[in-house]
Specification:
This protein is an alpha+beta fold. The protein folds into four domains: 216 residues, Clc chloride channel (Orthogonal Bundle); 208 residues, Clc chloride channel (Orthogonal Bundle), CATH 1.10.3080; 120 residues, CBS-domain; 84 residues, Alpha-Beta Plaits, CATH 3.30.70. The protein is 60% helix and 8% strand. The protein is built from 28 helices and ten strands. The strands form three sheets. The chain has a five-stranded antiparallel beta sheet with strand order 6-7-10-8-9. Helix 4 crosses helix 18. It is globular, with a radius of gyration of 32 Å.
């Protein structure tokens, strides 16, 4: 086994020199693997459902005891799932997507390989026994784990690990729902939060490959059979707007209710964590006696709503009981996704509003099924805060593109409503509970993370209001700034004076010395910054004004001067944030790869890396080691821990051939990436 893994790593190191080809090749392999995994997961669910159906049939044959099998199935399922997750993989609990996002943000994309098996079994048992959850969350976590495992075997750095985790997520969604475009969008919009082209290529390859595998084994069928719907009348957009608002509100109720339920099971219910899913199963079973539609993914009930074959009372009732059933299943420790429940809730809520619209505007509205279809997209978008994915996935799940206008309007309004009422999505809220800042971790423009107050200079030149002209001219001639602020005794800014004015006034200096003061030459209209402005806002202000420095005022009313920001400071801040992000990624990666550091590419085929000197280097001169001729690498610097000045510190210098290496030194090496990788494996 070890020789095989070594060959895989060696092949990976060789291919990494051709990064685009390498990325597409690995994505293709991930797509094939997740395609088979997605199909296998579906068959596993069907098999477990058949087993529990035997229990239902047995109890149905006992006079007066038909309810017993209905209640017992989710209890038994929970009793199996609880110990399985608690013992082998606690991260398999819940809906899975936040755990993948957390791995991308905090662990360099590393996910334990065992999650594939545990998540598959736990979710299949939860869904098959009647748990009110979906299968998209599990397959995202399963696919992402496959991508992470392949990346781990190839010894990849965090930058590539994250991409391949997203490839696994895209492949899983695509294979499970026969939706390659939506799978790709889900990965970049939710998992990565970044539509970078270099990442999108491998993700699309993985999604398409997984879809081909799935269609070859299962067939090319839409998830729902939907009648052909269209916008009947332009005035029909009014109820669709109302549907968007309603979905936004219910989505927030869903998120908050799940949060409250998790707090209830975590803090109030004094049971062992392994036993809580069985208690949740009891609640699901009791609800299912009256409302069997809430069991499992619930697609049969969604199909009924899409054909307009449900009464308004049943539609309204199912919205309420589905909220209770899904939040109970997840909060108690069951394993499954929130995507299918969101589709269910949207279909029932849309059917309700569509039925009401038919009653009051029968001649200008489509049937309730059209509203159920639009409600599905609106609810998914509102819960996940991912409108593009929600719109596209409904197209791919239904193969119906004729209702695009109301679909887009309702979804966008639903997302705006939910994000206004509650800032976090159902995914990011769980991350927030864990103390993970998703928005900061995936911010594509790092300047949005830094505020002006964090990097402004607090020492600056200023001109008093009453400064006489002769002193003013001298100060303007001596300053290196393009303009200076004019302030009163209270520290408030009255305007600015430009340095170029000094040359004009120099000839009149003696004549106007006693007649003119600084205030007389002040320009009152000037650009400024506020302490809370982000640095991307500051850059925009610099570009608009053409100035090289901008002054920072306490607020727009008080105008008290606090500091100055120079244009060059922005690039310094940008570089610092890039280094901090890179350092954080590398740290997370090296936790899981303690003997390996990520190299930084400086040009095609070459990189720089920090490596601790091997013990057999200790006491030897650099000329004696002769690393350049022996291994083809150059030593750019040596870092050494010192105790100079009475305390611990680090000394770093560019070495000479006569320098001697000491135990514990860190060598900064530059060379071919292939050579560096070989040295890391060797040392």
């Amino acid at each position: 086994m070890k020789p095989l893994l070594h060959r895989v790593k060696s092949l990976g190191h060789t291919l990494q020199g051709h990064e685009r080809f390498f990325g597409l090749t690995v994505a293709f392999a991930i797509g094939i693997t997740t395609g088979f995994a997605g199909v296998s997961f579906q068959y596993l669910i069907y098999g477990i459902q058949d087993l529990f159906e035997l229990l239902h049939q047995w109890s149905a044959g006992l006079p007066g005891w038909a309810w017993a099998g209905i209640v017992a199935a989710p209890i038994i399922g929970g009793a199996i799932v609880g110990p399985l997750i608690f013992k082998f993989a606690p991260e398999a609990r819940g809906h899975g997507v936040p755990e993948v996002m957390a791995a991308v943000l905090t662990k360099g994309g590393f996910i334990r390989p065992r999650v594939v098996l545990v998540k598959s079994l736990a979710s299949a048992i939860t869904i098959g026994s009647g748990g009110s959850v979906g299968r998209e969350g599990p397959i995202v976590q399963i696919g992402s784990t496959i991508g992470s495992t392949i990346g781990h075997l190839l010894h990849l750095p965090p930058r590539l690990m994250r991409t391949f985790v997203a490839c696994g997520a895209a492949g899983g969604i695509a294979a499970t729902f026969n939706a390659p475009i939506a799978g790709s969008l889900f990965a970049v919009e939710i998992i990565l939060g970044d539509f970078g082209f270099t990442q999108l290529g491998p993700i699309v390859v993985s999604a398409v490959t997984a879809t081909v595998i799935s269609r070859g084994m299962i067939g090319d069928f839409a998830a729902f059979e939907v009648p052909k719907y269209a916008l009947v009348n332009p005035f029909e957009l009014v109820p669709y707007v109302g549907l968007g608002l309603a979905c936004g509100v219910v989505a927030v109720v869903f998120i908050r209710m799940l949060d409250k339920m998790e707090n209830l099971f975590d803090q109030k219910i004094k049971l062992h964590d392994a036993a809580k899913p069985a208690l949740g199963g009891l609640v699901i079973g009791v609800i299912g006696i009256q409302f069997p539609q809430i069991f499992g993914v619930g697609y049969e009930a969604v199909d009924t709503a899409l054909h307009g074959e449900m009464s308004i009372l049943l539609l309204m009732g199912l919205v309420i009981v589905k909220l209770v059933a899904t939040t109970t299943t997840l909060a108690s420790g069951g394993s499954g996704g929130i995507f299918a429940p969101s589709l269910f809730l949207g279909a029932m809520l849309g059917g309700t509003i569509g039925t009401v619209a038919n009653i009051f505007m029968p001649s200008i509205t489509a049937s309730s099924g059209a509203y159920a279809l639009v409600g599905m997209a609106a609810m998914v978008g509102a819960t996940t805060h991912a409108p593009i994915t929600a719109i596209v996935i409904i197209f791919e799940l239904t193969n119906d593109y004729k209702i695009i206008l109301p679909l887009m309007i309702s979804t966008i309004i639903a997302v705006l409503t939910s994000s206004t009422l509650w800032r976090e999505s159902i995914y990011t809220h769980k991350l927030q509970r864990k103390g993970i800042d998703y928005e900061a971790g995936l911010e594509t423009n790092v300047l949005k993370k830094v505020r002006v107050r964090d990097m402004m200079r607090r020492e600056f030149e200023q001109v008093p209001l009453d400064l006489p002209l002769n002193f003013l001219v001298d100060q303007l001639l001596q300053t290196a700034r393009s303009h200076l602020p004019v302030t009163g005794e209270d520290g408030k800014v009255r305007g600015v004076i430009h340095r170029d004015l000094a040359q004009t006034l120099l000839r009149e200096k003696s004549l106007l010395a006693d007649l003119v003061v600084a205030y007389d030459l002040t320009e009152g209209d000037y650009p400024f910054l506020l302490p809370g402005d982000t640095l991307d806002q500051a850059m925009l202000r610099f570009n608009e004004s053409g100035m090289r420095e901008l002054y920072v005022l306490e607020d727009v009313v008080d105008k008290r001067l606090m500091g100055v920001v120079r244009k060059g400071d922005l690039m310094d801040a940008y570089h610092r944030e890039i280094v901090k992000r890179s350092s954080g990624d590398t740290f997370a990666y090296t936790i899981n790869h303690p003997h390996r550091m990520e190299s930084v590419r400086v040009m095609d085929g070459y990189g720089i890396v920090e490596m601790e000197a091997p013990h057999d280097f200790s006491g030897k001169f650099l000329r004696e080691l002769d690393l350049r001729n022996r291994f083809g690498v150059n030593i750019l610097a040596i870092k050494r821990q010192t105790s100079e000045g009475g305390g611990p510190g680090t000394r770093m210098w560019v070495p000479e051939s006569t320098d001697r290496v000491e135990d514990g030194d860190v060598l900064v090496l530059m060379g071919k990436t292939e050579t560096i990788d070989q040295l890391q494996d060797r040392w």
